[in-house]
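subagent[fold] <- orchestrator: predict structure for attached chain, return tokens only, no commentary.
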Amino acid sequence: MIIPMKKYAFMVYHKEYKQFLSTLRDLGVVHIKETKSISDFEDLQQMIAERKRVTTLLKEFKKQHNEQQPLAPARDLDKEEGMALVQSIEELQEERSKLSARKQAVLKDLDYMDIWGDFDMKQIKQLKKEGYELNFFTCPTSKYEPVWGKEYNAFLVNNFQSVTYFVTVTKTGTEIDIDAERPKMSELGLSQLREKVKELNDSVRACDERLQTMAVEEYNTLLELDKHLQNEFNLANAVVQTDRQAGDKLMFLEGWVTTDKASDMEEALDKEAFFYQELEIQDDDKIPIKLKNNSYSKLFEPITEMYSLPNYKEFDPTPFVAPFFMLFFGLCFGDGGYGLLILLICTILKRKANAGVKPFLTLFQWLGAMTVVVGALTGSFFGIALVDIPQFAAVKDYFLSSDNLMTLSIVIGIIHIIYAKAIGAYKTKIQRGLKYSLAPFAWVFVIAALACVFGLPMLDIQLPQPLTYVLYGVAIVCLAVALLYNTPGKNIFLNFGSGLWNTYNMVFGLLGDVLSYIRLFAVGLTGSILGGVFNSLAVSMTESLPGVAQFIVMLLILLVGHALNFGLCMISSLVHPIRLVFVEYYKNSEFEGGGKAYLPFKKA
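subagent[fold] -> orchestrator:
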């Protein structure tokens, strides 16, 4: 559900404003209404940039953490000292990047000079002082002319990848006219380059060790600095969003508070004699959204937030889409073995996971459990078709076949669409009134009645003849309502024309929507088939091998094959359910979305 909000206005004397903001921040319940864009204020942009530098370092340091090595406690630094620490770490990282770039350049020179062999450039310079010049050349092997040896004392050094490397020895000033390129040679010889690589490796290693030390010693210090910067930004943004009245003597601010926290806020402000007044919520107000759900539905809130938060006038879609998302995930994964693997991995990881990660692991425990259920119904376990195993002969008739699974996917799709349209109709009733919801509700009954009349016989479920007539009557009456009363307030002819257009869109829209649910069957079947293919490959490719070798090679094929299939199934089982659950639900329930999260002004 969406927690109800109250809108408040605050008016404070300018000399008391800092104390007022401090009180609000300590309360941590007011979402400040933003009336000005942050991008218009350079100081706020600078604060965002500073915090981004800190959060980037925190992410990099977190990757280097060793759980066996405890982190040092945070040092008490002010902002200037903290940003100086950030600067020193960034300079060390930049130095490491430069050393790494130089190392790559030297390695490139080393690879090239290895073709020419080891020699000392000083000797070549000494040769030039004696009146002889040594020049380096390369050319395609097919274009090398042996006559160059007589004319310019050319000596072949190497042939590598169809390129000839050679040198000429001539008197200083001799003009050399040959069809070859003069390569850019390193000033260092092969031995010197190897020493340089060793020296750079040591320098890079020293930088890495220093960064590793700082990751342990300064992580908590940077964490506290990040909180300080966040608090500073929140306070500065609150000041920016404030309107000044009466010659800057009065400070005016608006904000949102959840109804359950409103009385606590009023009591705290009354104690300090700050003026506030509850305002009437206007239709064009952008009310922040805070969701509240039970422990099960709450697990799916990140998925809702990722797609789109509802606006304040809508329902929270999370509890409505949660069971369908779990079911669709199980159908797309479709293999009980993979589901059991997800369940076990998440259960093990959950023991040592931090509080922020545990909800996601719990979510995947639910998803894994649903996959196990679907795998048990379809008879698929790590690509093995249980229906083909003699031990399951007694229950093989209870496993769902591919035809059953496709039919089930379509039935689930129809139920999901009716479910979404019913919620959309109820939303219309709440937002606009009963008369505007009659046509949407009528379409729900038309679809449900016709689905029972024509769909159930296809599933070998025969309805009593009187019930069939009743359903036909419901469909006809509701269709008349949908055709003749879809736009209250307009004449019957406009309603009829609009109703025909709506009927056209409904019929073809439903056809496309229902067929899109076949992907549940297709994706799940693909994963099971691929698992079976890897099992067959593991057996057929190792039949001729001796016992131990056969076991090892078979195990490797199974591990690699199923790991690849597991990854593909995981991606498909997240993408397609999100697509079906949210897109189809939002479209059929006329979901608007666009809500902004409730972010109270408080200390980090």
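orchestrator: received. Logging for downstream: The longest helix spans residues 190-240. The CA atoms of residues 51 and 229 lie 6 Å apart.
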